[in-house]
Amino acid sequence: MSDRTIAAISAGLNQPSSTRLLADRLADATVTELEMRGLSATVETFELRDVAHEILNAMLTGFPSGDLRAVLESVTGADGLIAVTPLFTTTYSGLFKTFVDILDKDSLEGVPVMLGATGGTARHSLALEYSMRPLFTYLHADVARTSLFAATDDWSGEDDARGGLHTRIRRAGREFAEMVAGHEKAVPIDLYTDAPTFDQMFGQL
Amino acid sequence: MQFGIFSVGDVTPDPTTGRTPTEVERIKAMLTIAQKAEEVGLDVFATGEHHNPPFVPSSPTTMLGYLAAKTDRILLSTATTLITTNDPVKIAEDYAMLQIISDGRVDLMMGRGNTGPVYPWFGKDIRSGLNLAIENYALLRRLWDEEVVDWQGTFRTPLQGFTSTPRPLDGVAPFVWHGSIRSPEIAEQAAHYGDGFFHNNIFWPMEHTRKLVLYYRRRFEHYGHGGADQAIVGLGGQVFMRASSQAAVDEFRPYFDNAPVYGHGPSLEEFTEQTPLTVGSPQQVIDRYASMRDEVGDYQRQLFLMDHAGLPLKTVLEQLDLLGGEVVPALRKELGARRPAHVPDAPTHASLVAARRAAGVTPGEVPTALDHWTGRSAEDDAAAADAVTVRGPA
Fold first, then answer.
1. What is the pLDDT of residues A115-149, one digit of tens each?
2. pTM for the complete prediction?
3. pLDDT tens, residue by residue, B3-31
C-alpha cells in the first residue's frame, strides 16, 4: 500500500486530450516529488467523459450509479486531488462543473487540490484564478498556490528555465507534493456518526 | 405483512395522448383506485398531502372519510401527513374523528413534505423544519395520550387545560409511522417512540435505504421497544406489469421517459437496475420484492406507487388486478414462510386495544374527578387564567 493516494480528474473531451496530458504530467511531477520525500504514491486518473451520462443522471436522480460511484469514492477519499479542465467560453467546462456540483459539499474540506486548465491561448490563463479557485475555495479545499495553465503553444516543446511548461509543472508538483505529504487524512464523515439523539433534538427546541 | 398502495395525487399529462386530466377527474380517480385496492384484497390505501399544483390531495381526511364510508376492510393511511406545517391540534382532532368514523381503520405517516415553499404557506419557517417535526409530534402524542394537556413550546401558542376532541377510539391513538428518505433524525424520532419507520425507497438504491432502516432498527432496540428485528418497517415500491415483460416495458417506457421525477435522465433499464422500480411480468415483480427483506430484514408494510406519471385510470385498475390477484398473494406466502415467529405484524387498532387491555387499562375510562368539560377547574390554574385575561382596563 502506498503512503499517499492522489486522484486526478480530467474533463478533456478529445482522444488524445491535452487536458488529460496535463493531468498526467502534474500527477507524475507530484509523485516524483513525493518520492524524493520518501513517500510512495498511487495515482488514480479519471476522464469525466467516461462517466458523463452517470454525472448527469446523478444530478437528475440524486444518487450516483455505475462507474461514477468508484470515481466519487476515489476523488473524495484521496490525500490530494488534481483537477484539470479545458476552458470553454471563459471558464471550466459544464461537464467539469456538473461533476463538482454532485460532490457532497463537505467532501473536499481540507483536501489539497491542485488546479489545471487548458486553452487555446495564454490570454485565458486567469480563468484559473477568477473561476476555478473560488469554486474550490467555496468547498473549503486546500487549494495550491500555483495553478497550471497550458495553452496550445506550451505543448510545442520549447522550454526555458524561467517560464516554460516543464518548469512550471515541476514547480507546481513540488508545491503540491509538500501539501499532500503534510496532509492528515480526516476520518470520513458518516451520516450516522454525528446523528443527534432524540434527547439532544428535543433539548434544543 | 401489510400490502397496499400509496398515491402522490399528481396531475400529469399522459405522454402517449398529451391529455391532462382535470383536478376533478384526478380526485375521482384516486377514490376509484382506493376502492379498487380493497376489492383486489390489498390492506392499505395511503394518500399524500400536497398543497401545490400539480398535486390534488390537499385535504386527506376529507378523502379518507369518504373512503371510510365506501369501504369495509382496507386500512386508510397517509403518505405523508405534514407534521411540520399542520397544527398538531388539528391533526389530533381530524384523525381521531377519522378513526371513529372508520371504526379504527386508520393510521398515519408523518413527513416533512417535498417542497420548501410549503412552510411559509402555513406560516412556518423551513429553517425550523426538523424542530417543527420534533416538537409538533411531541405535542400530538400528548394530545392523543393524555385527556388534559398543558403545553408550552416554541412553535405555537401555549395550551392550558386543553382536551382534544373527540378522544381517540377506545382510548388508543392511531398507529404512527415516520417517513424519511435521508434523515437519521427522523429514524431516531421513530425509534424513540417505538413508532414505525417508512422508507420511501422508490427513487433510491437499496443500499441507501438499507443503511437508514438498519439505523432505525438499532435505535429501536436501544430505546427498549424490542429487538432490532422487531422494529416496524415499511418500504415503498414501484412496479408496472403485463403478462410478458416485453409488453410491460414497451407500454411503460413513454411514461417512464417523461415522468416528473426521473424522466429525461437515466434509461428505464438503468433505473430499474438501480432502484426498486420493476417493469415486467408479475413473476419478476414477485421475485424482486421477495428479495427486499434480504436488504432490510423482515418488514411489516409494503406500499406500491401505481397511479402516477400520467397513467390512465383504466391501466392503473388493470395494474391493481395484477397486484392483488397475482403478486401480493405470492409475496404473502413467500415472505410469511420466511418470517420468524418473533417478528411482529404492524400494529393495528385491534392489536393496540388488545395490548392495552393486556396491560390492564380499560378503554374509554374518563377521569371522573376532573371537571366534566375541560378536565380541570379554573381555580386549578389561576395564574394561567390571569396571564390571558388580566390586561388592565380595556
1. 999 999 999 999 999 999 999 999 999 999 999 99
2. 0.89
3. 999 999 999 999 999 999 999 999 999 99
Q: Measured between CB atoms, does A187 come within 8 Å of chain B?
A: no
- Chain A CB contacts of B208 under 8 Å are 63
How many Å lie between the alpha carbon of B150 and the closest alpha carbon of chain A?
17
Of B135, B191, B270, the CB nearest to A65: B270
- Give the integer Cα–Cα distance in Å for A180 and A8: 13
Q: ipTM of the assembly?
A: 0.85
Q: Which long-range contacts (CB under 8 A, 24 or more apart) does A85-89 make?
A: A85/A10, A85/A11, A85/A12, A85/A19, A85/A116, A85/A117, A85/A118, A85/A132, A86/A11, A86/A12, A86/A13, A86/A18, A86/A19, A86/A117, A86/A118, A86/A119, A87/A117, A87/A118, A87/A119, A87/A124, A87/A127
Nearest to B131 among A60, A197, A205 (CB): A205
For residues A5 and A188, the model is more confident at A5
- Give the cell for residue B92: 389530533
A198 lies within 8 A of chain B by CB:
yes
Residue in chain B closest to A60 (alpha carbons) equals B265
Q: Is A57 in contact with B266 (Cβ distance < 8 A)?
A: yes
Question: Minimal Cα–Cα distance from B262 to chain A, Å?
Answer: 6
3-class DSSP state of B198: strand
